[in-house]
Design brief:
- It catalyses: a 6-O-methyl-2'-deoxyguanosine in DNA + L-cysteinyl-[protein] = S-methyl-L-cysteinyl-[protein] + a 2'-deoxyguanosine in DNA; a 4-O-methyl-thymidine in DNA + L-cysteinyl-[protein] = a thymidine in DNA + S-methyl-L-cysteinyl-[protein].
- Strands 1-2 form a two-stranded parallel ribbon.
- The chain has helices spanning 5-15, 25-31, 38-46, 76-86, 98-101; strands spanning 23-24, 60-61.
- It is mainly alpha-helical and 105 residues long.
- The chain has a single domain (5-101), classed as Arc Repressor Mutant, subunit A (Orthogonal Bundle).
- 30% of the residues are buried.
- The structure holds a DNA duplex (13 and 13 nucleotides).
Length: 105
DNA sequence: CATATGACCTTCC
DNA sequence: AGGAAGGCCATAT
């Protein structure tokens, strides 16, 4: 196996994220035991097969609760709408309420 | 083939 | 308390 397994591991964690809940890149990276690789978790999402592959990248948000503008499915607006459709609540500042919807392993 | 950048987070000053 | 820099692996040019 190659180090690329890191991607597979990232997908594995993201895939474990329950519906109506969101996880942060750093948290996922930390789960894999590589808190410094938070950046590549995002890369993994970019190369992710999509939710069709079981990788709900839209449930992955920043550590502060903001989404990924310009790189998401069709815009942070679409992503935000999807999360709301899953039951995730958003704060008036346009961020996810990690206080309540942050996925806890 | 080598160089540069990237959906980020953590830590130090 | 706020600001700045670093770090890591992979992908793309």
């Amino acid at each position: 196996m190659t180090d690329g397994d890191f991607f597979q591991r990232a997908y594995n964690i993201v895939r474990q994220v329950p519906k109506g809940r969101v996880a942060t890149y750093g948290q996922v990276a930390r789960m894999m035991g590589e808190p410094r690789k938070a950046r590549y978790v995002g890369f993994a999402m970019h190369s992710s097969p999509g939710m069709k592959g079981g990788v709900p990248c839209h449930r992955i948000v920043f550590a502060d609760g903001s989404l990924a503008p310009g790189f998401a499915f069709g815009g942070a607006d679409e992503q935000q709408r999807m999360l709301e459709a899953e039951g995730v609540g958003f704060l008036p500042n346009g961020k996810v309420d990690l206080r309540q919807y942050l996925w806890e392993a």
